[in-house]
Amino acid sequence: MKAVYFNEHGDRSVLTYGSLPTPAPGPGEVLVRLNAAALNRADVFVRQGWSGLKLRLPHITGSDGAGEIAAVGEGVRDRQPGERVVINANLSCGMCRYCLAGEDNRCVSWDLLGEVTPGTYAEYVVIPARNAVLLPDHISFVQAAAASLVFHTAWHSLITRGNLRPGESVLIVGASGGVNTASIQVAKAAGATVYVVGSSADKLSLAKSLGADVLLDRSVDENWSRQAYEASGRMGLDVVVDNVGAPTFMLSLRALRKGGRLLTVGNTAGPKLELDNRYLFAKHLSILGSTMGTHEDFRQAMAQVFAGKLRPVVDQVFPLQEASAAQARLEAGEQMGKIILEP
Length: 343
Known about the structure:
By secondary structure, the protein is of the alpha/beta class. The chain contains ten helices and 17 strands. The chain has helices at residues 41-48, 97-100, 141-161, 178-189, 201-209, 224-231, 249-255, 277-282, 295-306, 323-332, and strands at 2-5, 16-19, 29-38, 64-72, 84-87, 90-91, 111-112, 124-128, 132-134, 169-173, 193-198, 214-217, 237-242, 256-264, 286-289, 314-319, 338-342. Strands 3, 4, 5, 8, 9, 16 and 17 form a seven-stranded mixed beta sheet that branches. Strands 12-11-10-13-14-15 form a six-stranded parallel beta sheet, with helices on both faces. The longest helix is centred in the middle third of the chain and has 21 residues, at 141-161. 48% of the residues are buried. The model has no long low-confidence stretch (mean pLDDT 92).
């Protein structure tokens, strides 16, 4: 099969487009012939590597994907070759205490597809059969790949983990990335007033088209937490969703009202934080970590996508062999939605 892979960590020059053996599904697994894959920041982090990351090389990265089942492994009864599916990238054992409690994104052996296991920058990928969710005919493979990880993440963080309620206010830190465009829609559908901070008029225009109520332009005023405070009637926000990390974390805390909740769902710009603890105890704040979501979260979020209530935002589609150019666009922060690869 054709795939994009690397044999060593490094910059985009380590990415190679070539041929690798087509994998075969084992017991309980299916082989998916991919029609679309989508990029995430995790792809860049895995390519660059970090201390303690041990990969079997060559490695294929990529978490999002959609396609058709090409073959099924032993014991698989509920999936058949030819079925259209979207991939849930949340890999879990199904047997530990967390999985049995329906908290499979806390699995003791949890993994993200493409992080250590071979991912979706390829013509084929093997996944557990339970991670292949049937895709209705009216949803394209590109739409499904663009929706899967980001709506899964947004749904779990805001609805399941954050317990967002109608009438609350939510600030999304970022206007145009995949998780941010998904979070805007999930929060709006939940009945919240949605504030968005963005870096340009174009990105904020996209946020407005997705339902954002209050737009905060950090290119005009870098102190967007003050903007949010003033725009909320000097009360602060009920919830802030932050996937940036170190550069924005304290601003996010400052933007919260007393008793507010900060949902941290990633660290695209740095993981090491310095906190002023006075904000935490004086304002009775809660910091809630959230990674991906459960199988039930995935079913619920994708059901909303299939029904047209949530819509994935597609930025640009690249052929698989141009994965390096696609990652360059991602690293530059130029994208307005999800970047897609097509084998």
